[in-house]
Specification:
There is one protein chain. By secondary structure, this protein is α+β, with helices and mostly antiparallel strands. It has three domains: 194 residues, Rossmann fold (3-Layer(aba) Sandwich), CATH 3.40.50.10330; 143 residues, Tumour Suppressor Smad4 (Sandwich); 26 residues, no CATH class. 24% of the residues lie in helices and 27% in strands. The strands form five sheets. Strands 12-13-11-10-9-15-16 form a seven-stranded antiparallel sheet. Strand 12 and strand 13 form a beta hairpin. Helix 4 crosses helix 5 and helix 6 crosses helix 9. The N and C termini lie far apart (55 Å). The relative contact order is 0.15.
Length: 384
């Protein structure tokens, strides 16, 4: 394991192959090149360093992110002094989700202040699953680079880096910087298989996992949602258009899909993938209460977690969905806080945290005394 160093340390899990499933082809979904992903990482790290982060531990990969970062460091750019010390975790990459699982465990062992995740819903779920298993309340900051990004919000990496750095350096109180999140716990066969979804757990008629990515409405049987945002893309959008449920709102939503479209209560056109709006026959929906297991009516099929089929169940096996909210307070670690960049930077600005040396520059025209609280700051024109 890397040796501790003075100053805050953060972790980074960057998925080099997010947004490369079948939905990229059938729905014209976007795909970031490796150079774009590396640029996102560097912008985030420069901002984190400016806010006080001394070191970052990165997940190694075979997809090109590590190679480009190391090439950047070897070139000796003038901006290198603006980066925290960069170390790669002692992990041999396999180019599977096991890399994310193993990297998260190593980051927890290293005691990082927070974990930044670069990927889509699936990558974020993999990190949260390990945090939940360890009973850890280590906060997660998400950078959206996947096909479906219902969980990580679209945000400039610089702002995320500032928020992560301010929290890691202890310059913003956890109560101000962090927020609890919900998840859906899946139990198959009374404990034979257990897993979680941080956005949606969807039951399908399919008997095998297959290509994993889920994009055909006719295969859907039911959806169990931790939150339902009407502006989201993906299967959770079905619930968002029926009855929105906020990320911070108590409860979740269960949606039943009609087996026979002719018997549907209504037909809802939902954006189930980028550029793909399809009619979904709705049989009914109801709110989920936290801590109350809900039995799945489907007799056999698969369960998709955050957009990808992961678990198969046979006829006669009991499948239950349970919403967990604020569960980290119980020691189970199942509801990990997520960094709130907009809130953190707004509070930091209000409290004058951006006024330390090196974070305020003066232009020839205007000077702002922004090291004071917002209500006591002044701006004035300077003579040239």
């Amino acid at each position: 394991m890397p040796h501790p160093m003075a100053g805050p340390t953060i972790g980074l899990v960057a998925n080099p192959v997010s947004a490369r499933d079948i939905r990229r082809i059938v729905a014209n979904a976007g795909n970031l090149q490796i150079t774009d992903r590396v640029n996102i990482v560097l912008r985030m790290l420069q901002a984190a360093r400016a806010a006080g982060v001394a070191r970052v531990l990165l997940m190694p990969d075979r997809g090109g992110i590590r190679a480009l970062i190391e090439r950047h460091l070897k070139r000796g750019h003038d901006a290198l002094h603006m980066l925290p010390a960069i170390e790669f975790l002692p992990l041999e990459p396999t180019s599977t989700v096991e890399d994310t699982f193993a990297a998260t465990r190593l980051l927890l062992r290293a005691g990082v202040a927070s974990i930044v995740v670069l990927g889509g819903d699936g990558t974020h779920r993999a990190v949260v699953r390990e945090l939940a298993a360890a009973g850890s309340a280590t906060p997660v900051a998400g950078l959206s680079t996947g096909t479906n990004n219902a969980f990580p919000e679209m945000r400039e990496p610089t702002i995320t880096g500032l928020a992560v750095g301010l929290h890691a350096a202890g310059r913003i109180a956890p109560a101000e910087a962090l927020a609890p999140n919900k998840l859906v716990e899946v139990d198959i066969g009374d404990g034979r298989a257990r897993d979680i979804a941080i956005v949606d757990a969807v039951v399908t008629h399919d008997r095998s996992v297959g290509a994993r990515a889920l994009w055909k409405p006719e295969s859907l049987a039911a959806a169990y949602l931790a939150f339902a945002d009407p502006q989201a893309i993906g299967l959770s959008a079905i619930g968002g258009l029926l009855q929105p449920v906020g990320r911070r709102e108590r409860g979740g939503l269960a949606v039943q899909i009609a087996d026979d479209p002719a018997q549907a209560l209504l037909h809802l056109h939902a954006p189930i993938a980028p550029g793909m709006v399809r009619p979904v026959p709705i049989a009914g929906w109801q709110r989920l209460q936290a801590g109350v297991p809900v039995a799945v009516a489907q007799r056999a099929g698969t369960v998709a977690l955050d957009g990808e089929r992961e678990l198969a169940f046979d006829d006669g096996e009991r499948v239950a969905m349970t919403l967990r909210e604020d569960a980290w307070t119980t020691g189970a670690g199942q509801n990990n806080p997520m960094m709130r960049p907009s809130s953190s930077t707004s509070i930091a600005s209000d409290e004058g945290c951006f006024g330390r040396p090196g974070m305020v520059s003066r232009s020839p025209q205007t000077s702002t005394t922004n090291c004071a609280p917002a209500d006591r700051r002044t701006s004035r024109m300077l003579s040239t």
